[in-house]
Amino acid sequence: MEPIDQPIEALAPTLRAGNLSSVELTEAALERIRTRDEALKSFVAVNENAIAAARSVDRELRSGLWRGPLHGVPIGVKDNYFTADMPTTAGSRAPGVGFPLVDSAAASRLRAAGAIFIGKTRTHEFAWGPICPPTRNPWDLSRIPGGSSGGSGAAVAGGLCVAALGTDTGGSIRIPASLCGLVGLKPTFGRVSRAGIVPHSWSLDHAGPMTRTVADCAAMMSVLAGYDSEDPACRHEPVPDYARALDQSIVGLTIGVCRNHFFGRNQAAVESAVETALADLSAAGAAIVEFQLPNLDYGLGAIYAIELASSAAYHDRALQTGRTAHYANDVRTLVEIGRFVTAADYVKAEQVRHILMTDLARAFESVDVIIGPTLPLTAWSPDVESVEIGAVAESPLAASWRLSYLYNLTGLPAMSLPCGFDSDGLPIGLHIAGKPYDEMTVFRVAHAYERDRPWRDARATLAPRLN
Amino acid sequence: MDSAPDLPSEALLRELIGIGPEGDRLRENLAAYRVILEEIRKLRTLEVSDIHPAIVFDPTLSYRGR
Fold first, then answer.
1. Which residues of A are identified as catalytic?
2. pTM for the complete prediction?
3. Which of A156, A245, A433, B36 has the fewest CB atoms within 10 Å around its CB?
4. H-helix or E-strand containing A214?
5. Which of A300, A337, A355 sits opposite B51 (nearest CB)?
6. What is the pLDDT of residues A129-184, one digit of tens each?
7. ipTM of this complex prediction, to 2 decimal places
8. Out of B29, B53, B65, whose CB is closest to A333?
9. What is the rounded distance in angstroms from the CA atom of residue A18 to the CA atom of residue A166?
């Protein structure tokens, strides 16, 4: 395996020992972008300063200064995070849309840890929606990578960078992670600062990493997590050493499986892969407890009301002045229909949110994590308007966030990690959710599961389809 | 003789929602919202007057970091 295809956990000791330079790794990433991104369309900007930054890092490493596992590693940054050395567009070409050339809190933390920003990854305009046109899926270029962090998903899975940043308002980290065969974590609301990220819906937005392995995700989180007074959601919660969760036994842990809503309406391959994963975790010593959650029928209405109303408020002046006419038509429609949500609907959605949080808190009294599928389906073609899921025809867009948005409403940490492939060779995601600020247990279960899976080192090569 | 109540005019609807998409676009938006309204209608059936909204006002927020 070439170095650029390796995870951070393998690269870090090699870089630290001087057996590989950050310049070599960064040049390999840039070469991959040159040769593969015409097909993938995962980047909207490449950092002209990347090689200079890598040279600087190499000098530090040669002098014995080691900033941690990310030191010298090329990272992709979703185009809704502000960056000081690359413009931010939030996927919009509308006139009057512009953002400052400063580092977001997350970019600042990664830069201080020695990460090399290789470029800005594509997002659907203003991170709206679970797709990311025209980006393609590295496992099958005729399919979508999911969204809205689809550029980050395609870039990491396609070997164009080693890890990336995403944002998640209804599933936008976990959906592309699942469809692209990656690990993606939406941390607890308040765990990672959103300061310097273009808002989509203030109480639903989360920032987090997309990586090749669970250990890489832990390495990214160790840098990203922490209090920031610039984000009103951030709390003074101690940040544990996430690496300590790895290699811990899961004997004695209890895994909850919510049998309503999350099962019974999935593609057969997805349902089968998740059931197999649960059996594997049980065999590894975890207890499995099945339960049902009431009130989930109200969740979709609640997130629609909150997300649409918040987005309409954010874009209100653009709406009033007609600038939204320059937005992509689907985004313009979503922003405009946010005006139809009444104030009472919005507040009632916040009441339902409280009910769902309480329901989950009750479930977590007897389980340590809740596991299910991340999505009910694998990656679909962009021209498909309807898919058969559990013998019911459904829009793939509507289906795509059905299993993920609950954890945005409730703010709980939730991770997607690969749990196999369907018969077309497309990745399937396993969804692990935890208690507030208990990412440690999510990492512990995820790593115990990932450790012995045969697809841990599988990579999408794109090669046959590129030629 | 009873007469049917007047439906709100397009102009009144535009006034209520505070933006002014015209004719076809307003109708397209209303059509797009129909599927979402089905979900929001479920919220409206709930009696939740004893439930505090999830978002809690915090008067100390602006004093953080000072």
1. 78, 148, 172
2. 0.96
3. B36
4. helix A214-224
5. A355
6. 778 899 999 999 999 999 999 999 999 999 999 999 999 999 999 999 999 999 99
7. 0.88
8. B29
9. 30
